[in-house]
What does this fold into?
Amino acid sequence: MAIPKKKRPDDPDYRSKFEQTIGEYLGTNAVHEPERIYFTQPSKQRFYVPDFKTKGGAYIECKGKWDASDRIKHVWLREQHPDKRIAIIFQNSKVRLSKRSKTTYGEWATKNNIEWYDWKDGIPAEILTYNANSKNNRTRRRISGSVSEPESGASAVPNRSRTKRSASKGS
It folds into this structure.
C-alpha cells in the first residue's frame, strides 16, 4: 500500500523530474503553476468518410460502437450540412452510452435530431430510394415501425429481427 506524500505549503507538485529540476534552478525567482490561462482552440478543418452512399445520394453510416468523438462529429455534420441526408444504422440501438449512463445510442441520436435506424429492423426502403435532387424530399428522423419493401431496382434488405428461442430444459 502506497503511503501518501505529505505536502508542505512551499513544496510544489511537479509533473515531471525535468520540471522539478527547472523549479529548483529557478528557486524563489518563479512560482510553479500560479494560474490558469484560458484560450480557445482554433477551429480545425476535418473530413468525414461515410461508409456508404446510395445511388440517390443518401449517406449511410454503420455503427457498432458509438463513442463520444463519433457522436459529436455527427452533431457537427448535421449542423454544417443540413442538406445532406446521413442515416446511422446501429448494430444495436439499445446499447447504453456507457456503463453508468441510462441513455441508449438511439435515445441520444433522437435527442440530438440525428436520423438513425436499428439493423435488426433492417434498412428502410426510403433510404435506398432517396433522391437528393428531388424537391419532394421530406426530412424525416427515426422512422418507427416495420420496414417497407424497396421500390423496383433496389435490392431487398433482410429483416434482422430476433426470434425468441424456446427454453427447453433437459430433453
In short: The chain has a mean pLDDT of 76. The radius of gyration is 26 Å. The first helix runs from residue 17 to 26. Residues 150 and 156 are 6 Å apart (CA to CA).
